[in-house]
Design a protein that fits this description.
single chain; 170 residues; alpha+beta; Sulfite Oxidase, Chain A, domain 2; 5-stranded mixed beta sheet; 5-stranded antiparallel beta sheet; 4 helices; 10 strands; globular
């Protein structure tokens, strides 16, 4: 495997206080700890990760819980159309149509080990669709909000990702 490149971990990211919140248009809002995710049915996903900055990490193996499994517990209402996945840093987020989001993985392991903090641990959203853009992979994923209206441009991290400098820390 080629290594994923990384950017500095924001000071607001605290892995000890991490929880995954499922909010918005759901019948059962959730607050899940890492142990709760590990107790759910897990699966694997392997693929290359190609970044808009021009680098590629080949054949990464992720392990975790599908967003669909988590949403199945939260029970989105009939009005839910999209999801917004927010990062613990309070700045980064990405939106997806609800049906597309269900196949994404909430990765808790990378290459058989806990996802390192610099690569988005303790849990990173990994889209599994072949047409996913790198900026849709949300490091430090801490909230999945089910939306009842189409997301806006400010609901996506694309601008942040595309404006980042290309000086990784690894």
């Amino acid at each position: 495997m080629d290594a994923l490149e990384s950017h500095p971990v924001p000071d607001t990211v605290d892995p000890n206080g991490w929880r995954l919140h499922v909010t918005g248009a759901v019948s059962q809002p959730l607050r899940l700890a890492l142990e709760d995710l590990r107790a759910l049915p897990c699966g694997d996903f392997s693929d290359d990760f190609t970044c808009v900055e021009g680098w590629r990490a080949r054949d990464l193996s992720w392990h975790g819980v599908s967003v669909g499994s988590v949403l199945g517990r939260a029970k989105p209402t009939q009005h839910g159309t999209d999801v917004l996945v927010r990062a613990m840093d309070g700045d980064y987020a990405s939106s997806f149509p609800l049906d597309h989001a269900r196949s994404a993985l909430i990765a808790i392991e990378l290459e058989g080990e806990a996802v390192p903090l610099e690569h988005g641990g303790p849990a990173r959203l990994v889209p599994t669709g072949g047409d996913a853009d790198c900026w849709e992979s949300v490091k430090w994923g801490s909230e999945i909000e089910v939306l009842t209206a189409n997301p806006t441009d400010r609901d996506t991290a694309e601008t942040i990702a595309l404006n980042r400098g290309s000086t990784p820390t690894e």
